[in-house]
Every structure is written in structure tokens, then in C-alpha cells.
């Protein structure tokens, strides 16, 4: 246990160094050399942590991490003149059980996500063009289950499928033409599609009349991001979170549904429920999130309705982080973005080659998970990183590929 | 479906019509029976910094089915939706037996250690005391009793669960009661569902009533 702890401390130091690396200018002072030596040792310990924690407990994060390097190579370079970006340059995800006895987090990544259900599309004029647009969209989601893993798993299986259906229905209804109204309509349609999707999946998980004991008390948070060439749509229900790094600044794209959020408390009380501080603010003193999929026993106080953010992309947008509260409980938005930025830019890997294995989105996700563990997170930890724009210079990238 | 909506029907006497369809006289009789059970079997003496309350539930299943679930001190997970696992120390079930209960995730506790105070198969009384765990319910003591009743002319069961507990620092009596009642309502709702499902699966002969 003590060696375990010290390894974690080392990992924490490595991350602190990565953080600090940003501010430090590369003069090789004696202390810097000492630090480098120290980090070299850390490199081994950090990889030992990676073997122990990652290999044993990291759930294979779909195929995204192996995908990501592939797609990174073929992804077209963004051009400054056109207000369209590749939906994402690369993506990576890490999900670990952490110090919990049960794994109840789930993640899902599909890029492109609408292409899979293409056969379902009605043939007709204008569809081909729409599909061209759809293919660029990526679906990324983190689900944090409680009271069991069943609902989080159902979300992982169903959310993207149901969303694809809801989006397709609305896309096909869309008339031709252009103008500002179309933009607004599009946003409204996305919000509708997300809301309809969450409602449908919520209905599916609680349905069975002959449900076993405990079926009523299982639930899951859901944070879903659809990343397109021009905009990012985030739908959130619960206390997982999506954060965008825009020009080095952390921009939250969701607001946690905590029972003590004034508008949430008002909503719960208006529905006849109460929020009680019982080891933190909880609905009826029981559940610490005010919205979720499932949790039928707490309806109508706990609802499945998502809050949806539609954010137009800018050329300053760097990456997106989606994570469960296993990360956010111990790492702030700013620190998470800073760590991921240092990693994706290649700065962390070139400075600390043995403690930071690379500069892919998967490396950034892994680094954030390590940080959360080292900071004492007691929960399952799931992190998805979506790289929107290449932060790494070509030279750094080619050096890395050649190593 | 099951939600803990609204106040009605849970408190003793609230549900005068719980027996169903019998009009004011029968309802009055049902309420009187509840009050009598309460007086006889559920009298707690809460201290200055304690709170106490009782909840009732009418279940459309015969007493023996409901009691078989309630009395299984070693398997509360048969109907309690928040219990993930339970182990009884020593093995034999007797007065003084202690169970280690693991609670599902997402709740303000992970474990609870509970002692069997009373198990009366004739009167259908179960009493349990919390003696440890990482929850905030100090000196929690509960009594569950089940009683036969007729619901729409069919064998039904009246369940009464009462408790007394310390009010923890940082909370009011009202909050403490509200929280415990919310948990008990979940348990009793689930007890009703499981019992009623069992009753449908194995209809009892009139002799067993």
C-alpha cells in the first residue's frame, strides 16, 4: 500500500512538473537537471503505475485510441479561410475503476457516428449532400452510473443509436434554402433531438413491469458531445462535464446538475421534493445529482431532461474534454485543460519522455486519469479527449513518429 | 410508476380508505386497527435529540408471503433496493445476530452493521438496531410488524415500520425524519412489489390464509 501511495505521489509530481513546464524557460540550471534526473526515475515508476492501474483496470476504451493515431495521419490539415474544420483530428479515452469496488462508468466514442445507420436513410433528393455533412460528425459520451452499472451500460449501447435516429428524422424534415433562420432552426433541431433522445433512453431503461428488486434505483449521468465541422453540441444530464479549451482558456460547455444549484433546488421543491444536506446536498437526502437517466424511484424530482449547449466553432478551439466526476471532483477545468494542452502540444512528451508516453488524445486522457488518481479520487474515473486542432508542430510530430 | 410522489397514504391513519371500497365505517375500523397496532407494538420514546416516526403500507399479498420477506434478516436484499450484499456473522440466525450490509453506490453510505433485536414469528415482529457503519444514523432502532387485512375482499397485509434515531449535527429533526422516511418508503414500495409478484406467481389456497 505504501509503495502504491508513493508511486502515486511520484505520478503527481510528474504531473506537477508537466504543469510547471509551461512557465519554465529551458535554461538547464542545476535544479532543472536534478529535476530531470528525478523525473527519469519517475518515468519508470509512472510506467509501473500505468501497468498496474492501466493494464489491470483500464477498460479498453472502445477502439478509439488505436483509431486515433490512424485518423490523425489521414486527417486533412485545416485551412484558415474556410469556416469548417475536420470534426476532430483525433480522440482518445481512458476509463478506470479507480479505488471503487465496482465499475459503473461507461464511455462511448463513434466518429463518424451517423454513417453507421446510413441504410436507414430514406433515399431522395438532397440526402447525399446531407450525408456528406453527417459523416464528419463525431459522437463522444461519458456515462457515470450509480446503484449498479445497468443504466450506464444501456446508455453506452443505446444513446448514439437513438440520437442518430432522432437527428436523421429531423434532418430529413429540413427544407432547402439558406439564411440566418436556417441556422437557428438547426440549433433548435439539435436541442430537440438531444431532448428526445434522452427521454427515449430514459423510458427504455425503466420500462419493464417485472423489474427485479433494485431496478428502480439504478441510474446514470450522461454527457454527450456531437462534434461537427462547424459546431459542437453538448447535452448534459447529471454531474459529468464537458469542457472546451479555446485559445488556452477552459470554457465549460455544461453545467453540473447538483441538487444545491439554485434553479435545480427550486425545480425539485416545486415538484414536491426536498433537497437535504446529508453528506452533501442530495435529493430527499439520498441522491447527489438532480438529473439522471433511470432512477425511477426519484421521479419526478430527478429528471432525464438534458441541458443542451450549441457552440459555434472558432479557429481557437483546441480540444474538448468529457469526464465523470471522478476527474472533476479533484481537478479543476483550468488544470485539466492545461495538462491536456501540454500533452497534446508534445511539450510534455519531449520534456519528460519517460513519464509521458506521447502526445495523442489517448495520452492526454491517460495523463488526466493519472492526475485524478494521484490526487486521491475515490471514484471511477473516465476521460474522453477530442483533439479539434493539431497543437503539435509538424517537426515535433515527425520526430515522435520516428522515435 | 413507483415514485415517492406526494404525502398521502404513508402515515398512520392517513390512509383510512386503504382497506378499499368499504365506505366510511370500514375505513374507520381500519384506522382504528392501525392505531391499536401502533399503540401496542410501535411505541418509541425518543430523547431530546432524537426523532421518531412510523409509516404504513398496504400490500395485496397474504401475510405469510410478506412476513417471509420481512423476517429474512440475513437477506434484506430480497426486497430492499439499496442493499447490494449482506453477510451474517457466525451464520446462525438468532436474537443478537449481527449482519454486515453493503449499500449500493450513489447513496450517503457504503456499509451498515445491524443487530437483530427481536424476531417474533407468532406476532410477526422484527426489530433491528444499527450498531455501526459509515452512515449518519446513530442509535437507529426500527420495528417492523405485519398484520393480516382484507383488501377488496382478498387477503392482504398491513405493514407498519417505525423508527427512532439521533438527529445528527448539522441537520434538523424534520430533515432527519424526512430522509429516513424516504428510505423506508422505498423499502416498503419494493416490499409490496416483490410480495405482490410472488402472490401472483404462487396463488395461495384459502386454507393458507
Detail the topology: elements first, then pairings:
The complex is a heterodimer of chains A (403) and B (209).
Chain A: H1 2-21, H2 30-57, H3 64-74, E1 90-96, E2 105-110, H4 127-134, E3 138-146, H5 150-173, H6 180-206, E4 219-227, E5 231-237, E6 241-246, E7 249-252, H7 262-270, E8 275-277, E9 281-283, E10 293-294, E11 307-312, E12 317-323, H8 325-328, H9 333-344, H10 347-351, H11 361-374, E13 381-387, H12 394-402
Antiparallel strand pairs in A: 1-13, 2-3, 3-4, 4-5, 4-10, 5-11, 6-7, 6-12, 8-9, 12-13
Helix pairs in contact in A: 1-2, 1-9, 1-11, 5-6, 9-11
Chain B: H1 23-41, E1 50-59, H2 63-70, E2 83-88, E3 98-103, E4 111-120, E5 125-133, E6 141-151, E7 154-166, H3 173-201
Antiparallel strand pairs in B: 1-7, 2-3, 3-4, 4-5, 5-6, 6-7
Short description:
Chain A has 403 residues and is α+β, with helices and mostly antiparallel strands.
3D structure, described in words:
The complex is a heterodimer of chains A (403) and B (209). With 403 residues, chain A is an alpha+beta fold. Chain A has helices at residues 2-21, 30-57, 64-74, 127-134, 150-173, 180-206, 262-270, 325-328, 333-344, 347-351, 361-374, 394-402, and strands spanning 90-96, 105-110, 138-146, 219-227, 231-237, 241-246, 249-252, 275-277, 281-283, 293-294, 307-312, 317-323, 381-387. Chain A has a domain at 83-118 and 134-173 and 183-255 and 308-389: Phosphatase 2c, domain 1, CATH 3.60.40. Chain A has twelve helices and 13 strands. In chain A, helix 5 runs antiparallel to helix 6. Chain B has 209 residues and is of the alpha+beta class. Chain B has a domain at 48-72 and 119-199: 2-Layer Sandwich (Alpha-D-Glucose-1,6-Bisphosphate, Chain A, domain 4), CATH 3.30.530.20. Chain B is 27% helix and 31% strand. Chain B has three helices and seven strands; from the N terminus they run H-E-H-E-E-E-E-E-E-H. Chain B has a seven-stranded antiparallel β-sheet with strand order 1-7-6-5-4-3-2, sandwiched between helices. Chain B is globular and about 45 Å long. The chains are: A alpha+beta (403), B alpha+beta (209). Chain A: GO terms for molecular function: metal ion binding; protein serine/threonine phosphatase activity. Chain A: Keywords: Hydrolase, Magnesium, Manganese, Metal-binding, Protein phosphatase.
Amino acid at each position: 500500500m505504501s509503495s502504491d501511495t508513493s508511486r502515486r505521489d511520484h505520478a503527481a509530481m510528474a504531473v506537477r512538473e508537466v504543469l510547471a513546464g509551461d512557465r519554465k524557460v529551458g535554461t538547464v540550471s542545476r535544479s532543472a537537471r536534478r529535476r530531470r534526473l528525478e523525473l527519469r526515475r519517475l518515468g519508470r515508476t509512472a510506467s509501473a503505475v500505468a501497468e498496474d492501474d492501466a493494464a489491470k483496470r483500464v477498460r479498453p476504451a472502445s477502439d478509439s485510441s488505436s483509431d486515433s493515431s490512424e485518423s490523425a495521419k489521414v486527417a486533412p490539415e485545416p485551412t484558415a479561410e474556410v469556416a469548417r474544420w475536420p470534426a476532430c483530428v483525433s480522440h482518445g479515452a481512458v476509463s478506470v475503476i479507480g479505488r471503487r469496488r465496482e465499475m459503473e462508468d461507461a464511455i462511448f466514442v463513434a466518429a463518424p457516428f451517423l454513417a453507421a445507420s446510413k441504410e436507414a436513410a430514406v433515399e431522395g433528393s438532397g440526402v447525399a449532400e446531407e450525408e456528406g455533412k453527417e459523416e464528419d460528425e463525431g459522437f463522444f459520451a461519458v456515462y457515470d452510473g450509480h446503484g449498479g452499472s445497468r443504466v450506464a451500460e444501456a446508455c453506452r449501447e443505446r444513446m448514439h443509436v437513438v440520437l442518430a435516429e432522432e437527428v436523421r428524422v429531423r434532418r430529413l424534415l429540413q427544407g432547402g434554402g439558406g439564411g440566418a433562420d436556417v441556422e437557428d432552426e438547426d440549433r433548435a433541431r439539435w436541442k430537440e433531438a438531444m431532448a428526445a433522445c434522452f427521454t427515449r433512453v430514459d423510458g427504455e431503461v425503466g420500462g419493464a413491469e417485472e423489474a427485479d428488486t433494485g431496478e428502480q434505483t439504478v441510474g446514470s449521468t450522461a454527457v454527450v458531445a456531437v462534434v461537427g465541422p462547424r459546431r459542437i453540441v453538448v447535452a448534459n444530464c447529471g454531474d459529468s462535464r464537458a469542457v472546451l479549451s479555446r485559445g488556452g482558456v477552459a470554457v465549460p460547455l455544461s453545467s453540473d446538475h447538483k441538487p444545491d444549484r439554485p434553479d435545480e433546488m427550486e425545480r425539485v421543491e416545486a415538484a414536491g421534493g426536498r433537497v437535504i444536506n446529508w453528506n452533501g446536498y442530495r435529493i430527499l437526502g439520498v441522491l447527489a445529482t438532480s438529473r439522471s437517466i433511470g432512477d425511477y424511484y426519484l421521479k419526478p424530482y430527478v429528471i432525464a431532461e438534458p441541458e443542451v449547449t450549441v457552440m459555434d466553432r472558432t479557429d481557437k478551439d483546441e480540444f474538448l474534454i468529457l469526464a465523470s466526476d471522478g476527474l472533476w471532483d479533484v481537478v479543476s477545468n483550468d488544470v485539466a485543460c492545461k495538462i491536456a494542452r501540454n500533452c497534446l502540444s508534445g511539450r510534455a512528451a519531449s520534456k519528460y519522455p519517460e513519464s509521458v508516453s506521447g502526445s495523442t488524445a489517448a495520452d492526454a486522457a491517460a495523463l488526466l486519469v493519472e492526475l485524478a488518481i494521484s490526487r486521491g479520487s475515490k471514484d471511477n474515473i473516465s476521460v474522453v479527449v477530442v483533439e479539434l486542432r493539431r497543437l503539435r508542430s509538424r517537426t515535433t510530430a515527425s520526430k515522435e513518429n520516428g522515435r | 410508476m413507483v415514485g415517492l410522489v406526494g404525502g398521502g397514504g404513508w402515515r398512520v391513519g392517513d390512509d383510512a380508505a386503504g382497506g378499499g371500497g368499504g365506505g366510511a365505517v370500514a375505513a374507520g375500523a381500519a384506522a382504528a386497527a392501525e392505531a391499536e397496532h401502533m399503540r401496542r407494538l410501535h411505541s418509541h420514546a425518543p430523547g431530546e435529540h432524537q426523532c421518531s416516526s412510523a409509516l404504513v403500507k398496504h400490500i395485496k399479498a397474504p401475510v405469510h408471503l410478506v412476513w417471509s420477506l420481512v423476517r429474512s434478516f440475513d437477506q434484506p436484499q430480497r426486497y430492499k433496493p439499496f442493499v447490494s450484499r449482506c453477510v451474517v456473522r457466525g451464520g446462525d440466525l438468532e436474537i443478537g445476530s449481527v449482519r454486515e450490509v453493503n449499500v449500493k453506490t450513489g447513496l450517503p453510505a457504503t456499509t451498515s452493521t445491524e443487530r437483530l433485536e427481536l424476531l417474533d414469528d407468532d406476532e410477526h415482529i422484527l426489530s433491528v438496531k444499527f450498531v455501526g457503519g459509515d452512515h449518519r444514523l446513530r442509535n437507529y432502532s426500527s420495528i417492523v410488524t405485519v398484520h393480516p387485512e382484507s383488501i377488496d375482499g382478498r387477503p392482504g397485509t398491513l405493514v407498519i415500520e417505525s423508527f427512532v434515531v439521533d438527529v445528527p449535527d448539522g441537520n434538523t429533526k424534520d430533515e432527519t425524519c424526512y430522509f429516513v422516511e424516504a428510505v423506508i418508503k422505498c423499502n416498503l414500495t419494493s416490499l409490496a412489489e416483490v410480495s405482490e409478484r410472488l402472490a401472483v406467481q404462487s396463488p395461495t389456497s384459502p386454507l393458507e390464509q
